[in-house]
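R.M. (postdoc): so does anyone remember the format we settled on? I'll just put the structure tokens first.
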């Protein structure tokens, strides 16, 4: 490919990316009911919340200073129940409330740096394909209370 043609393609790509952002603006995104199960240091805790994106978006990652790592987990059907599987992103269709909840999708806080006790708060930074990152304050709740949510 000749250099001149390659430059033209790069420029076209930049224009397309610009259009996509303009079409979504102003992009709104809300996160509600953030909570995480009480879990001892060194173990993994699941975090849950409701997300509503104003335009099509994707949740692409999470970090927290309460754990060594955080990853996105989906529940997939398997023999004898569900199995959790790490995924790169979770789709957030425009205007739809996407619920991360017990026995469903969640953010896994892996290898906790400290005990998470009921009433504590954990800051989780969520990142998205389009929207700017959001800091979420998740409340630590007893596991028994999480288990009762779906009853
Ligand atoms: Cu998990």
């Amino acid at each position: 490919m000749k250099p001149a043609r390659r430059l033209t393609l790069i420029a076209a790509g930049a224009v397309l990316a610009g259009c996509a952002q303009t079409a979504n603006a102003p992009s709104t995104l809300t996160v509600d009911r953030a909570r995480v199960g009480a879990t001892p240091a060194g173990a993994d805790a699941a975090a849950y919340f409701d997300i509503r994106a104003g335009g099509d978006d994707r949740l692409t990652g999470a970090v927290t200073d309460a754990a060594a790592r955080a990853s996105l987990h989906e529940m997939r059907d398997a023999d004898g129940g569900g199995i959790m599987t790490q995924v790169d992103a979770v789709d957030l269709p425009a205007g739809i409330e996407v619920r991360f909840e017990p026995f469903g999708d969640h953010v896994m806080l892996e290898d906790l740096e400290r005990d998470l006790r009921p009433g504590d708060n954990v800051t989780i930074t969520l990142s998205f394909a389009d929207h700017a990152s959001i800091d979420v304050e998740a409340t630590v709740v007893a596991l028994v209370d999480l288990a009762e949510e779906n009853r």
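R.M.: ...and that's the designed sequence above, right after the tokens. Also worth knowing: The helical segments are 3-24, 143-148. Residues 18 and 133 are 19 Å apart (CA to CA).
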